[in-house]
Write a structure and sequence with these properties.
Growth Hormone, Chain: A; 424 residues; mainly alpha; 83% helix
């Protein structure tokens, strides 16, 4: 097959994947690679970069908790800000503050203080997490939402294919020099993407209504309105149960921050070898997207969550038995973990949005995020403290929590099968 034919076929696949989606979802998906080619790499190598400039495990963990603590504060005002400014405007302003500026700070950081400044700025991203999610999904029909989240997660994972190339550069020039250059390139590239995406998206219907409603309210009144919506969370069927599931998955993800350091320092894999981890994850994700998602979409959401967490527990347990230096076994296990994470995030988010009412979506989704961040604040610092004492001990804790999450998934699935009422 000629290159022209391959390109034509690739475009055909993309068009079929986006067929029937509204404007915002379609254009946000088309723009996502321009963020992901930078975001996936810098997130993956961040612990190694911080280590390379002299930060300890405790400091790296503390930075994670500082970020979460500040994120909690910004999350508390995410709904009022998003409702007053609109999904589109909030996303643009928030992305410039939480990604563009921090990328240039990270590029020159040499101390814990510099990383703390970048962490404070990046915490504004919690507001964007709400506004962008609503901009992406609010106008999408419920039956299509899992597909949209699946495509977004697929793009982010596939862009991890760049990490082996960056790993080759790291092998030649070192972690510090390579990542400083990549942060600068990312700061420029992301800024272009943010402006471009803003130009081709539009305010959602719910966003227009929310802006009109909150325009007449003062800032204090807007926050009080949000708090009233939060207080009514238990009145929405299934929302508390899904919130508990969401919270525990995020907590585990924060603990897993040290996985790359565990693989490098404890299991003795080189940075160049570890650069192939996202490559394997991308392969597994593509396979699951084309084969797994169509099969899982036939199941009730509760049973789907069970399947994803069986895979997650299996991966967490097997990671404890990876032989030091055995590349094949390590890549197989992290591939399994990557696939489980992809499926969990895709169906977790779809299940959560299915439990949110059309009115007050921003307030209730922000409430879930706020509660999640509050409970996850100590996770990174706890992970750093445990890793400092016993690297294997940290991943035993993760395996235990993965077991608890699977039990919660079983419980949610059983409640879902018993009735269509509340799951919690």
């Amino acid at each position: 097959m000629s290159p022209h034919e391959l390109e034509y076929k690739s475009r055909g696949v993309q068009l079929r994947a986006l067929a029937g989606l509204p404007r915002n979802a379609r254009n946000a998906i088309l723009m996502e690679p321009l963020w992901a080619i930078f975001g996936t790499v810098v997130i993956y190598y961040a612990p190694l970069y911080m280590r390379s400039v002299g930060l300890s495990s405790t400091e790296i963990g503390l930075l994670g908790s500082v970020t979460l603590a500040l994120s909690f504060l910004f999350q508390a005002v995410a709904a009022p800000v998003t409702n007053r400014l609109g999904r589109k405007r909030t996303t643009l302003i928030g992305d410039l503050i939480s990604w563009t500026i921090p990328m240039f700070v990270w590029a020159t950081a040499n101390s814990f203080a510099a990383f703390a400044v970048a962490a404070a700025l990046s915490a504004v991203g919690r507001i964007v997490a709400l506004s962008w999610s609503l901009l992406l999904i609010e106008d999408v029909e419920e039956r299509q939402r899992a597909r949209v989240f699946g495509i977004i997660n697929l793009i982010v994972t596939v862009c991890g294919l760049l990490t082996p190339l960056v790993g080759l550069i790291i092998a030649q020039h070192g972690v510090t020099a390579t990542m400083r250059a990549y942060y600068i390139a990312g700061g420029v590239g992301m800024t272009v993407m943010f402006l471009w995406r803003n130009a081709i998206t539009q305010e959602t219907q719910s966003g227009v209504a929310a802006m009109a409603q909150h325009r007449a309210l003062g800032v204090g009144q807007s926050i009080c309105h949000t708090m009233a919506m939060v207080a009514g969370m238990r009145g929405h069927p299934g929302l508390m149960g899904m919130t508990a599931f969401y919270l525990l998955t995020v907590f585990i993800e924060q603990l897993s921050l040290f996985q790359i350091l565990f693989l490098q320092e404890t299991l003795q894999f080189s940075a160049q070898t570890l650069s192939f981890v996202p490559f394997v994850g991308a392969f597994v994700t593509v396979l699951l997207y084309w084969v797994g998602l169509p099969q899982l979409s036939r199941l009730p959401l509760g049973r789907t969550l069970v399947v994803t967490r069986v895979l997650g527990l299996l991966g967490a347990a097997l990671l404890l038995f990876v032989p030091a230096g055995n590349v094949a076994v390590m890549l197989a296990v992290v591939g399994l973990l990557g696939g489980a994470t992809f499926l969990t995030q895709t169906y977790r988010d779809a299940a959560l949005f299915s439990r949110l009412p059309r009115e007050g979506t921003a307030d209730l989704y922000s409430a879930v995020q706020t509660l999640t961040l509050l409970c996850a604040i100590p996770a990174a610092a706890l992970a750093g403290a445990i890793f400092e004492v016993s690297p294997h001990g940290l991943f035993v804790v993760i395996a235990i929590l993965s077991g608890l999450l699977l039990l919660l998934a079983f419980w949610l699935a059983r409640r879902e099968s018993e009735s269509d009422g509340p799951l919690f």
